[in-house]
Amino acid sequence: MLETLLETLIFDLAAAPRSLHPVIAEASVARSAAMLADQLWPAGRPDEIGEVERFFWADAARVLGERRDPESFHLLTSLARTVGPAGRLPLQRAHLSRLRTEDEVPDWVTRIAGFRLTSAIVSEDITGDGLSVVLDYDDEQHPHTVVVFIDNNIGAIVKDVFVGPPVDRVLDAYQRGGRVTIRTVRPPTAAGIILQALGETNDYDDPPVTEDFEFFSALLVNRLTQLPERPIRPPIRPLLSPRQRDKLVDDFLDSTAGLPDDAADIVRLWIDHAVDHTVGGPLRVSAVLVELFLAHWLPRKVLADSTYFAAVPVVVKAWLAYAGDRTQLALDVVEEAVDAVDVWSPALEAAAIIDPVGERVLLDDTTSDLEDAYRALSGLGTPPQPDLQGLDKSQAATLSVLAPHAWLMAGETLGNAYAPDAFDIAERLVREAPDLLAKARLSTWPRAIVWLLAHRHRLVGPGETLTPYSLAADLASSPATLRKTAKLLTDTLILPTLT
Predict the structure, then answer these.
(1) What is the pTM of this model?
(2) What would the pLDDT profile of 141-169 be if each residue is shown by its tens digit?
(3) What is the mean pLDDT of residues 360-374?
(4) Which domain holds residue 41?
(5) What is the DSSP string of 257-274?
(6) Would you say which domain of life the source belongs to (predicted)?
(7) Host H or E run for residue 361
(8) What is the pLDDT of residue 160?
(9) Do residue 471 and residue 395 come from a single domain?
(10) SS3 of 95, please?
C-alpha cells in the first residue's frame, strides 16, 4: 500500500508545475489517506477503528523512516502533516528522525501543508445558479486560492474544487466577467458554507462532481477542520409552506391576463420544482433553471397530452417576466431565460402522449424517462399500447403510465419473457381494482408487480441468483414495502395458476 501511495504521489507531482508541488503533494496524500480509511477501517466500534488506524500508520512510519530515497521522504513529510491524530505522532517522529539525516531538503517540501488561510470571498451568480467560495492562502512563496463551486441547481452540493491563482487575479476575473456579486466573509463563515454543502454532496450515492473535486476535496476538508476557529453554520433556509406557494400563484394570476386554463397548475409545478429541488427560491430567473424544468423534471414528473404541454412555454415565459420584475433583475438576464424556453420546449413535445387524457397525471420523482429506457433495452423493443376503452379519463391516464412501466421493469429486472405478464397484471389492476391504487404510490405498483412475478416463478430464494434484498435493491424499494404491496395484489386479483 505504501508503494501505491508513493507511486501516486510521484505521478501527481510529475503532472503539476513545480510551483504547485507543495499543494499537489498535500492533496495527493490527503486523498490517498481518505481512500485508505474507507478500505481499511470503514466499520466497527470507534475504539477498534482507532486501533487499526494507529497500527497501520505506526507501521508505515517505521517503514518510511528506514528508507533513504528522497521520494519516500516527500511521502513521509506529506503524511506527517496531513494524517489525523490517530496516526500523526509516529509519522512525525519518523519525519524528524529522517530530517536530521537528509542531505538536502527542497524548499517546496518544507511548505507541504503549511499554508495559512488569510481571507475568503464569496462570488454569487446573479441568476442564483451557484456560488464560489474562494479561500485565500497568501503565502510569499506559494500564494494560491482554493476555489469551491456550489451548484444551487443540484441541491447546493459542492460540484467542483480546484486550486486557483492568487486572490487578486481571481477577483479581477470575476469583475471582468460581470453578472456576479462579490462579498468578503470571515474564514469561519466560509468554512461553514462549504462544510454544509459538502454534507449535501455526501448525501448523493453518485454525486455529479468533477475530477478536480475527487482530487482536492480531501485537502479541502483537512484544511477546514484545522482552522483555529469553529466553522459558523449558515442560517437555515426558510421553508415555503403550501399556503405560501398558493399565495404566489394567486398573486401571479392576478397580475397577468390572457393565460391558458392550466396556468395555475403549471406555475405551482414551477414553484415546487424551484423550492424542493433547487436552492434560491421560486422567484429565481435562470436559463439553467428553465432547462432543468422543461427538459428534465417536468417530462418525468407529469404525464399529459400535447394540449397541456403546449401551454407550459407560454406560462413559464409569463412567470419569468413576473419574477424578474419582482426581483428587479436586469432585463438581459430575464431575456436570456425567456429565450431558453424556446430552446427546451421540444422536450415537452416529445414527452406528450398521443391520445388525449383530459387531465395530467403526476408521477413521482423515481420515475425514469421511458423513451430513453426503451432505446437502451433494444431486446425489449417498444411496449404494447394498453386498451383504454371503457375507462374514464383518470383510469386511462393511469393505465397509460402503469402498464408500460411494469412491462419495462419486469423485462429489465427478470428478463424479456416476464414483461408481458407484468403488463397484463398492471392492466387488470386498473380495470378490476382501481380503488386499490390509492393504497400505494403509483411508482410502487410496477415494482410490486415485478416482486410478485419473481416470487411466483420461484426466481428468488436459495440456489437462485436473486435474494429478496438484491431484488428490492434492483427495484429501488424496500422488501417490506414490496411484500406489503404485492400482498394487496394477490388478495384482490385472482391470478392464473402456473403450469
Answers:
(1) 0.71
(2) 888 999 999 999 998 999 999 999 999 99
(3) 51
(4) 1-111
(5) -S--TTHHHHHHHHHHHH
(6) Bacteria
(7) strand 361-362
(8) 96
(9) yes
(10) helix
